[in-house]
Amino acid sequence: MRLVDQWRRALARARRGELAVLRQPWHRPVPGGTVAPYLVKVLCADEGRLAAWGTRYGLPARGICRHGSIPHYDLWGPLADRAWAELAPATLGTGPDAGPGENAEGAGPGAPPPGGSPFPHQGSSPSQGGTVLDHRNPERPAGIDSQAPGPAPAGGGPGPRAVVAVLRGPWPAGDAAARLVRAGWPGAGALYDRWQHVLEIAPLPPELARRLAHEAAGQTGFATWRPYAGAASLLLGGSLPQLWSLACRWGGHPAVPDPGRGPEPGGTTAGLGAPFTGRDQPASGEDLTRSAGHALARALLSLPHLPPGRLGAEGGAAPLSPAGVPAGSPVGGTAPAGRGRAGPVSAAPAAGAPWPAGGFPAGPVPLALGPRKVDFRGRSLLFGRRTLIMGVLNVTPDSFSDGGRYNAPDRALRRALEMVAEGADLIDVGAESANIAASKPELEEELARLVPVVERLVREVDVPISIDTYKAPVAEAALEAGAHIINDISGLHADPDLAAVCARYGAGVVIMHLQGHPRRLAREPRYDDVVLDVARYLAEGVQRALAAGVRPEAIVVDPGIGVGKRTRHNLEILENLGAFRSLGYPVLLGASRTSVIGNILETPIGDRLEGTLATTALAVVHGADMVRVHDVRANARVARMADALVRGWDEPAGGWPFDAVTGRQRRPLRELGRLPVRPGDQSRT
User: How would you classify this enzyme at the top EC level (predicted)?
Assistant: First the structure.
């Protein structure tokens, strides 16, 4: 049974005055410090009947939650198991009390069997108490005053602790050496090889960080380490060949053995950016050294404006293109065709394909450093040619920016067609506002807003349709209606089922960072280092997506400007935007009309266009692949101009429309709005 059908069945039963049960993704700490992936909700429109049920289990009537349309208890721990075992068969239509029209379908792969646990209890026991949450203080159990919730992990929800490497500088608009390489100057490659790059790798145990810093300093001339998040981070700087040699050595590449030790076991198969083995079983020093090497390799392969074939010039490793295959291979980097434009569109290496001899055994790096077309359920986007434009379409009555303007299918369709004509490459549709003060719709209300709009857009708009949701049932319904991409503001941390839904439908996934939960953002956000914390959170989301079967080339990451961050955090992320490319995936920036712009310019929401345009230009400079904006035409034009300056340009086949000397118009102008696309570069199907 689909998740959305489970919710509909439970809500229908509860509205008839019968007891029903369903699971809500939670994935947050509960009293006692454990993390509950789910809360179990017991619902009934007849509040007296619900209170009587609660009395059987010692639950006070004041623990009933009355927000939303149906009174309910929110349960966790052993009592949640008992409630699920008692009520799930009738709710899901598998027991003798199934209501009219309920068939004998099972709970499906996303739900536990009757009598089974709805989520794993990490050390919970009946003595912990706190089996019902007090909704006056959702993180404190009703009737329990002696326990406080455990702290949330830095940067967001729980997950494997990924070792990440991020670029810390320099931040050029295609640095001088790279520009000379692209322009074809003789000997410019040697200059690029001498350009110094600074990267940071974290988290590492302090002793390991100290040892690697000593080793790196002997190779590159600069390395140091510092405390970070209860562990340490390693900062090192050097030229590309020096850093690549370190990455190969630490990663266990057989062509560059560690002197005196030889290749590490498993060095030819370890995955790039491998995580710690877990919080309960710390990884060994060799595992973490390999993880550091793989993370460094991914960051180097993801450098903005990296010319093809520049890595691996020293240290015995074969030169690699940005796609991670030997230079000159038909799959991977391509030679420049125009002034900075890459040549033919390159195909991504096949998932799971063995790496060619001499290639770094690091796994795929989906970031498109050359043009790469990616299919999203029958519609495609071309990454790496120019900065893509994602148009925002809110079908909510209370969005912070344009709530209520497009919450009818006809108005939503007109706006979507208008944005496509103005230059949007894809449309992002949201049916629940991220505004912290906005109301949060029940599932049926959200689907009623969303599904009719998606069905119209898929039929009548020729670009991919993205859905802004963190809920698996909503994503499943939208994908059934024909959507192509899921944009999860929680980065696959809020609903553990969402990644599997995306993988099952072959959808693309945007993994965004936030601190807190989409329905309760952190009001006092704190970070050890906002760039590293956000990068680690995104890396954990990527790992969840890959583990569920999402295609690597279908993943995009978004640092989450304005969500669970103070103004200083947002500014630091914007200043270091290029660091997030180091994860090896396309980067989306969604800064349009956000509070950081309002605070700097001291302007209301409707008067933040100039600030948004500045962030779009900055995104292009830092190598972002996509920007999410409300004002499509203006941002598309800024991105087009910035792309010409940063990525390079090609003279149109018919020549420029204006004579550069006289200023006279020589040919008709192309349609304003939708960006011109060269033959063979179609990014839409």
Answer: transferase
